[in-house]
Amino acid sequence: MSKNKKTLLVVLVTVALLLGGAMLMVQQADAAVPGDFLYGVDRAYESFQRGIRFSDEAKADFELELLSERMSELDEVSKNDEDLVDEAVENLDDQRVRTEECVREMEDNENSDEGELERIRNRYEEEVQDQYENMEQVQEKVQNNGDESQIETVNKVMENYKKEVDSFGNGSQNKQNDNGKGNSGSD
Q1: Is 6 a member of any domain?
Q2: Residue 119: domain span
Q3: 159-162 contacts: CB < 8 A, separation 24 or more?
Q4: Tens digits of per-residue pLDDT, 48-96?
Q5: Interval 126-166: pLDDT, tens
Q6: Between these two residues, 124 and 19, which has the higher pLDDT value?
Q7: 90 CB-near residues (< 8 Å, 6+ apart)
Q8: What distance in Å separates the CA atoms of residue 42 and residue 27, rounded to the nearest whole number?
Q9: Nearest to 74 by CA among 29, 125, 120, 136
Q10: Would you say residue 24 lies in a domain?
C-alpha cells in the first residue's frame, strides 16, 4: 500500500471515529438534565436543530418537543437534585415562552394551514395545562423544603403558567362569543 493511501486511510478512520464519538456524545447528552456534564452539549445540539427547521409547523413541533423535555428535566431534578430546581424551572418557562412565540408566529402568518395551526395550538394548550398541574406539585415540594429563592422562582413561573392557561379560556370564550354574535344576528 502506498504512503498516500495509508495516510488517506488513517484520516478516514480518524474522521469516522470522531464523528461516531460525537454522535454517541450527542445521543447521551439528550438524556442530560441541568447539572449534568453533557447538559450544555444537549442545549447546543437543540440550538443547531432549531436552525435547520424552516417551516412554521416544523419549528412549532420542535419547540413543543423541547417544552415537554424541559418538564421531564424538571421532574428529574426535583426528585434527585433539589439545588437545581431554580435552573430547571427557569429553563421550562423560557421554553414555554419560545413555544408560545412560535404558535403566535403561525397565527400571524396568513399562509399557515388552518388545520396544522389548530393541531399545534391544541397540542400547546394541552402541554401547558399538563405542565401547570405538574408545576403545582413542584411548587408544593419546594414550599415544603423552605428554600426562599426556589419558592420565589417557582411562584413566578406558576403565575406565568396561570396567565397562559387563563388566556386559553379567554380565547375559547372569545370564539364562542364571536359564534354567538353571528347566531344572534340571524335570529
Answers
A1: no
A2: 32-166
A3: 160/93, 160/96, 161/93, 161/96, 161/128, 161/131, 161/132, 161/135, 162/132
A4: 999 999 999 999 999 999 999 999 999 888 888 778 888 999 999 999 9
A5: 999 999 998 888 888 888 877 788 888 888 998 999 898 88
A6: 124
A7: 153, 157
A8: 8
A9: 136
A10: no
Contact of 38 with 28, CB cutoff 8 Å: yes
Residue showing cell 500500500: 1
**Domain annotation covers residue 137:** yes
Residue 11 has pLDDT above 50, yes or no: yes
Total count of domains within the chain: 1
Average pLDDT, the chain: 82
Is 132 domain-assigned? Answer: yes
